[in-house]
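PROTEIN DESIGN WORKSHEET
SECTION A - STRUCTURE
LENGTH: 414
TOKENS:
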């Protein structure tokens, strides 16, 4: 019999499909979530005593359907035909009679609805974390660093908008799928980056959830090369997570990380996925980012990294996502391949870009190159500018330590 945390894992894993199916039945995301939430609560009470059913997903869907029917009967605001619709479905055969294609379409419908372009990017992330991942409102509020009531209001407004704006609960038609898919991939990527931000502790739960979402999406859309590319990118990036902070909780730069701590199974899987994705084509931004990550992950040391290839890949990535942040990353690769002076020229050209005016990483990168050039005073000034931009706690501690070390090593006159 399965008990304890494993039960919660099972429930979380089956949440997406259960909410997707019930949403199709009742046509109301909030109502479906409530019904599935009640079914999950019942499972966590009953399963430790009775054992986990052979098909826990079907159990949750069936239980949620019955709970939805009961609630619809109690709510006079619902039209009789809605009640009849759910009752008719709940009295038909078990969910095992539903085809795999129908389950696939239900799950895709749910995530495409949550990532609809009518919503702001932050709302898309919050809706996906709630409806698709099953995170509680409290957990989502913690991700966005807002009070729980504030997040609850955002989610309720978004779900009302689905109904009021007539946002369809269906998979986009074939001619619109390619146009809508990038928004879904972006949300999954942003869920990962929310967990992988340069702060301690890293939100490993969000990283794992994003990887799970990418896996399921790849199962649902196996022919999409960029989905494979995204999963490869997440796995390769996440493989370095154990080495990103030291025992004291301080950040460790990529070039200084203990590579023996990197997760080899993730590197192997990510590399294999990338190779498959590149063969399938066409090439997209996530595949290029995954290729950059693979250059790092497969190198035995920082010095052994093919930095010229990394710089070239960033240059190619600029064609897909022209961004000063990507250009700054290319500058760092150029500095590793051609020397710090070459990289510093590029970073200095970006110093006054409006998108980077509040980005402390630019000054951190400049400070590192200035240090390598022996310009200690200038490096300290750059680190101080980074501090003025109020970086996260872990970065602030990292910068403070760098300034202290540079002062200790500075032999120039003051």
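SECTION B - SEQUENCE
RESIDUE ASSIGNMENT:
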């Amino acid at each position: 019999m399965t008990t304890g945390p494993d039960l919660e894992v099972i429930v979380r894993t089956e949440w997406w499909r259960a909410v997707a199916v019930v949403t199709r039945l009742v046509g109301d995301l909030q109502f479906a979530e409530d019904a599935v939430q009640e079914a999950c609560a019942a499972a966590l009470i009953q399963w430790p005593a009775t054992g986990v059913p052979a098909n826990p997903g079907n159990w949750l869907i069936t239980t949620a359907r019955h709970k939805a029917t009961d609630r619809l009967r109690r709510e006079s605001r619902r039209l009789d035909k809605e009640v009849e619709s759910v009752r008719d479905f709940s009295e038909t055969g078990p969910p095992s009679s539903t085809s795999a294609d129908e389950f696939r379409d239900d799950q895709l419908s749910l995530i495409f609805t949550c990532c609809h372009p009518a919503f702001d990017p932050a709302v898309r992330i919050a809706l996906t974390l709630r409806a698709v991942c099953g995170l509680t409102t409290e957990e989502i509020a913690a991700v966005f660093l807002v009070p729980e009531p504030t997040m609850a209001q955002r989610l309720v407004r978004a779900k009302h908008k689905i109904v009021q704006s007539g946002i369809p609960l269906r998979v986009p038609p074939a001619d619109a799928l390619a146009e809508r898919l990038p928004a879904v991939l972006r949300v999954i990527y942003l869920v990962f980056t929310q967990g992988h931000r340069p702060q301690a502790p890293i939100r490993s739960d969000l990283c794992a959830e994003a990887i799970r979402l990418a896996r399921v999406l790849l199962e649902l859309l196996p022919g999409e090369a960029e989905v494979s590319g995204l999963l490869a990118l997440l796995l390769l990036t996440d493989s370095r997570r154990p080495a990103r902070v030291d025992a004291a909780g301080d950040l460790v730069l990529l070039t200084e990380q203990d590579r023996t701590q990197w997760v080899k199974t993730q590197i192997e899987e990510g590399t294999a996925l990338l190779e498959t994705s590149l063969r399938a084509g066409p090439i997209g931004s996530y595949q290029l980012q995954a290729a950059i990550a693979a250059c790092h992950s497969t190198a035995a040391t920082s010095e052994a990294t093919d930095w010229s290839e990394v710089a070239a890949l960033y240059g190619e990535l600029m064609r897909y996502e022209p961004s000063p942040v990507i250009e700054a990353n290319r500058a760092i690769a150029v500095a590793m391949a051609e020397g710090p002076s070459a990289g510093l020229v590029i970073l200095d050209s970006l110093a006054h870009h409006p998108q980077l005016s509040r980005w402390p990483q630019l000054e951190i990168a400049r400070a590192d190159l200035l240090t390598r050039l022996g310009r200690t005073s200038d490096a300290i000034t750059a680190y101080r500018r980074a501090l003025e931009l109020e970086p996260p706690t872990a970065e602030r501690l990292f910068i403070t330590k760098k300034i202290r070390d540079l002062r200790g090593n500075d032999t120039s006159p003051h």
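SECTION C - NOTES
Confidence is low (pLDDT under 50) at residues 86-94.
The two ends are 71 Å apart (CA to CA).
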